[in-house]
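Can't paste images in this forum, so I'm doing it all in text. The chain is below; anyone willing to post the predicted structure tokens underneath?
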Amino acid sequence: MEKDMTGKESIQMEQKKTDVFRGNYDQRKKAVEELLHLDVNFDILHKELVIGNKRAVLYSIDGFLKSSVIEKMLEFFSSIKAEDVPEKYDDFVRKFAPFADITTIETQKDFVKYVLAGLTCFFIEGYQQVLAFDLREYPGRNVDEPEKDKVLRGSRDGFIEALIPNAGLIRRRIRDTNLIFQMENVGRSSKTDVAVIYMKDRVKQQALQNVIQKIQKINVDSLSMNKESLAEVLFPRSWYNPFPKFKYTERPDATAACLLEGSIVIMVDNSPAAMIIPTSLFSILEDANDYYFPPITGTYLRLTRIITSIVAIYITPLFLLLIEHPEWVPQVFDFILIEDEVNVPPVIQFLILEFAIDGLKMASINTPNMLTTPLSIVAGIVFGDYTVNSGWFNSEIMLYMAFVAVANYTQANMELGYAIKFFRMLCLILTAAFGLGGFIVGSLLIVAALFLNPVLNGRGYLFPLFPFDGQQLLRRFFRVSLPYVEKKTKTCQK
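Text version of the structure:
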């Protein structure tokens, strides 16, 4: 029985069959045509020309080219006289290719990699090597303020879906020779560019090597979902612990600040968000806007964000516990209890509204912009008035769920928002089933999830609370002046 060939074996056979670095010019040209499937691929540009007395052919991706630059280059190479063309490849490069972004290719693997990455590759008759020019101009949007990471005061530029412009935004803020951009490739088919960014003199070397080794050992076919695909293979998550393992930001100023603090930043091509490690709960709760205001204002904003997140977890389970035990409520706070008739159990009301809020979120994403405002008004009227009058929901429950819906947007991390939501619902169900005991168990489960949430190259998810560092903990709650932060950063490095 004939044995089936694996994907790896078939690739090896294909490489043996078509080797673009063997044979004469015509044979190599034919091998490239077979390798890149030029008979069916319309977007791979191949143009023949004559450089002096030597035949040459150009290969590139049509959508990645700067047309004006390549026209001038072709005009320049076509004007070279036959007597001026040297016999050796190195002499040709020194004489006719004094450009900054050039690469010499000597293997078929590198040739495929560079061509499909968008570089312009030249096959020249008589030369075994291939000359590659970086003339790429990726299609994409302009640098603009991130839609998610809104800026209250500060720079209104944000990352886009291309690595090179993103690197420039960081270099513009950190003009230091210790800033390193290390490039890696991930994915057998996608060969996605992944940049590991760090400050050489501030990063922990052991943590850095651990991250780089993990990236280099990744064995997947592609990173179809960009940064999220990388995060899942880099650090497999437990399905039962939704708290985020990474901090994401689309702001260059926040990214630069994290790099100066010794963090490691990972950026994936085609993604506008930067992954920051190591990460703790307190670093996720921080926001760059805190540092664009005076220390007292920044501290107020930070404390408001932390308190709101805590209240968002416990407000509905605690309210449910109190309405089940009204004798625990002091007389002065009797107004918080439900006075109207309750037709649907409160826990069912809370759960229905939890799902309804997410349904409205998804509907707003898929709603055309011209209909967003009128539909939002209609939805507000229906859910805010008719549902109460119909007897499905009580006004007190609508009030607390409205607070929960708004509180979810006090912090920028969406993963943290959904983690708060899941544990709030869990605590709510346990409280409805077991009363005070369920509320306590739900609270303990939240604390356990925080303590047991592993992080990549960090001292703990609750650092500096556990392990305890009083000075660092105060800095997480209170925004100190920037000169003080810089001084302490240098002291820690020493």
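Residues 291 and 298 are 6 Å apart (CA to CA). The longest strand covers residues 44-51.
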